[in-house]
Structure formats: C-alpha cells, structure tokens
Amino acid sequence: MRLTARGATDVGRVREENEDGFLVDERVGLYAVADGMGGHRAGEVASATALEALRASVAAGSAVRDAVLAANAAVHEKAAGDAELAGMGTTLTAATLAAGGTLLVAHVGDSRAYVLRDGELRQVTVDHSLVEELVREGRLTPEQATVHPHRSIITRALGVDAEVEVDLYSVELRPGDRVLLCSDGLTSMVRPDGVATVLRREDDAERAARALVDTANAAGGEDNITVVVVDVEDGDDPRRWQHDLPGSRSSPRPPRPPPRRLLLSAGA
After folding, report:
1. Band of the pLDDT at 253, cuts 50, 70, 90?
2. Distance between CA 2 and CA 264 in Å, rounded?
C-alpha cells in the first residue's frame, strides 16, 4: 500500500495572520494538521512548535500517540519560558500508516480526520469542543452546532497543561480510499456533503487540497484554512517504514489503551 499526500493552507478572508500549520513528510510517513491559538503570533508559534516536535519524535522511532505527547511537552515548555507566549496552545491531528494497511490517527482538539470511501465521507475523529459535548448530551442538534456562537471553544488542546489526553483511532485502509486532515477553518465554512463533493470531483490530491481551501474562502473564509489530502494507492512503497501498531513491540512503559477502531463497510 502506498500513500500520496498534498497539503494547502490559507489565512482566509478575515484573519490577519495564519496560525495553522500542516505536515506532509513522506520520508517518515507522517501527515498532520495543527490549528494554533494564543495572543499575538503565539498561535503560530504553538502550531509550528508542535509540528516540529511531532516530526522529530516520529523520526526518532516514537509511536504517533507518544509523538503527540512529546509535541504537547514542547509547546508547554516553550510557553513557560516566554511571558508573551503564556497560555498558547494548538490542536493536532496526526496520521501514520501501520503494518497491514492500518491508519493510526492521534488527535487533540477540533481539527478533524475523515475517510472518503466509495464516494461516502466518514468522520474518524470526535471534536474536543463545547458544542460537541452539547450534541452528545442531546442539548444541541448537529445542525445547531454548526452555527452556535460558541462553536470555536475547544475543551482540549496541546500545550495548555503539562499533560494531555490523546485520542487514538485506527482505520483499516484499502486502495482507493482518500484521507482528509483539516482544521476547523474548513469544516466551519463547508458542510460535510460539500467537502465530499470536492473530494469526489478532484482526482489529484494537490488540486483537491487547493479546491477545498478555495471553497471555504468562497463561503466566507472566517478562519485560517488548512487541509492535507492523502490518497491510498495499491502497491508497495520502497522508500520506507511502516509504523508499529500499539503494543506490537516491547517497551518499559505501561501498555496504552488500544486505539478506537473505525470500521468502514464496503459502501461507506
């Protein structure tokens, strides 16, 4: 199985600075999106710091969830050492390919991962946000959540605390699947059916990424917009790696909970 990925980011039509960032590192098989938050330029620093630490940790052999924990520590330590960066944080959604064609997605915040299979788009991650909690409690409908005035409030982020809980998901991929990682600057502007339409229309990953950004801007572009589109192709990739599944190798650390497994049927 071979993955081909492209990303795109844009400041949008309202914000003055782009605090998002993305990572496509095919050498180590790592793909990620981060959406920073904080004071003047602190969000940009947070997202860049998280992505740099994530890449370094995976390149050194860490599993993706441990790499996200390392990214949390890097952002937290950087904020603690500079009063102008105090309180900064970032979302982070990162994906790697494990043995057997399993996609591992580590996730904190309200950036998202999706899988398009047979033309149908399925959301992999669950937002760590106030409106998502209200939807789960039955106090908001999904439609109400999309226009709620507090829809940008997140309940979990990297760097805010010394420790953070990282959600881990696994998806059994197959050739023809398309994975999307994105910041909420896309999903707050474009509904899932609109996202799916673009992903079905544009065969090329780079064109698809750019078209998603353009669609969000056409809808108002109220936030920074960042996407990574990953195409799953048949055949082996001789360049690399496949990351270990959790618990597949010995470690002095206590075993972590198994990843949540997303099962996609033939028509989904």
Report:
1. very low
2. 19
| Rounded CA separation 182/22 (Å) | 9
Hey, CA dihedral for 228, 201, 142, 268, is it positive or negative? negative
Indicate the residue type of 69.
L
Instruction: Give the strand pairing for 225-233 and 2-10.
Output: antiparallel
Q: What is the pLDDT of residue 139?
A: 63
Within 173-247, where are the H helices? Answer: 184-187, 192-201, 205-218
Strands 260-262 and 167-172: parallel
261 located within any domain:
no
Q: Which amino acid is at 245?
A: L
Can you name the residues that pair with 92 across neighbouring β-strands?
A: 34, 108
Q: How many domains does the chain have?
A: 1
Length of the chain: 268
In a domain, residue 256? The reply is no
**Rounded-to-integer distance, Cα 17 and Cα 69, Å:** 26
Q: Round to whole Å and give the CA distance between 114 and 50.
A: 21
Written as one letter, the residue type at 15 is: R
- Per-residue confidence band for 21, with pLDDT thresholds at 50, 70 and 90: very high
Q: What is the pLDDT of residue 268?
A: 31
Q: Any idea which residue has 């618990």 for tokens?
A: 247
- Residue 85 forms part of a structural domain: yes
Domain limits for position 22: 2-235
CATH number at residue 27: 3.60.40.10
Q: How far is CA 163 from CA 38, 68, 73, 83, 125, in A?
A: 18, 11, 8, 20, 20
Integer Cα distance of 120 and 116 in angstroms = 5
Tracing tokens 């904080």 back to the chain, one arrives at 38
pLDDT of residue 142: 66
| pTM of this structure | 0.87
Question: Looking at the domain assignment, is residue 243 inside a domain?
Answer: no
> 214: phi > 0 → left, psi -120 to 50 → alpha, else beta; which?
alpha
